[in-house]
Amino acid sequence: MTFKATVLTLYPEMFPGHLGYSLAGKALEREQWTLETVQIREFATDKHRSVDDTPAGGGAGMVLKPDVLARAIDHVSQGDNRPRLLMSPRGKPLTQERVRQLAEAEGAIIVCGRFEGIDQRVIDARNLEEVCIGDYILSGGEPAALTLLDAVVRILPGVMGNDLSGVHESFEAGLLEHPHYTRPQVWEERDIPAVLTSGNHAAIEKWRREQALALTRERRPDLLPKDSQSVKK
Ligand code: SAH
Asked: What Å distances lie between residue 29 and 125, 159, 161, CA to CA?
């Protein structure tokens, strides 16, 4: 099944952006996923093609108009069961778990906000799932959509050269990943940890697991299961 991404944006030329390169780009060429962009402005009806207006209640900035955006959404979602996402700093933080669920869907319809945001009524009326990619404010939803799609596309079946390489990744097992090393054996007087060149696979696995646990405890204790957050190894 091909993952079908449809992105609603005022800047379609920002796509596929970095997703046109490397593994995601090759997968796009091979049609392992598809990307359609829709210019929201095409759904404006006045002669100036306006898509935004001043905020009700006053204040700085502009707000994307509900009628224009709803027409764009309806245009792409007729008889469509794909999740409808809105990139938004107020959304649920994106996790690898949600990324995995999305990768199993038929695709996604992704709305990119601009200005101060979009009229609340269209979020409610079209049941948009707000998704946040981190606790900071971007100037538009496009880089957020590209980030979300990057995370989804890389785990689609057959996209990564070595399908196993996703298994040990940070977050996949609820832990940060262990450190990596490669040749030369000694670099600036620093050695590769001896266990990694020992050929003892059980010892290597054990070392990696211990490193992953220690790193997670130190940097992201919030990722550890509740009952082990206070337990010392
Ligand atoms: N006034 C808003 C920010 C608007 S930023 C607020 O304070 O919540 C403009 C657009 O950029 C948003 O509509 C959204 O689509 C996108 N955006 C900004 N930061 C984001 C983030 N952390 N995650 C996802 N989308 C984001």
From this structure: 35, 11, 15
Q: What backbone torsions phi and psi does residue 4 show, to the nearest 5 degrees?
A: -105, 110
Nearest to 153 by CA among 8, 26, 37: 26
Ligand 1 pocket check for 88: Cβ under 6 Å: yes
Contact 72, 30 (CB under 8 A): no
Query: Structural domain tally of the chain?
Result: 2
Q: Ligand 1: which residue has its CA nearest to atom 11? A: 140
Whether residues 142 and 57 fall in one domain: yes
Q: What is the pTM of this model?
A: 0.95
Decide: 144 in ligand 1 pocket, CB within 6 A: yes
- Dist CA 212 CA 97 (whole Å): 19
pLDDT in tens, 70-92: 999 999 999 999 999 999 999 99
Distance CA 196, CA 192 (A): 7
Q: Identify the domain containing residue 52 by its residue range.
A: 3-153
User: Given the CA of residue 86, which atom of ligand 1 is nearest to it?
Assistant: 15
**Over the range 203-213, which residues count as b (16 or more CB within 10 Å of their CB) and which as e?**
ebeebbeebbb
Neighbours of 101 (CB within 10 A): 12
Give the residue, out of 120, 137, 148, 150, with the most ligand 1 atoms within 8 A of its beta carbon, to mutate for a pocket test: 137
- If asked whether residues 195 and 85 sit together in one domain, one would say no
Q: Is the CB of 8 under 6 A from ligand 1?
A: no
Over residues 11-38, the pLDDT tens digits come to 999 999 999 999 999 999 999 999 999 9
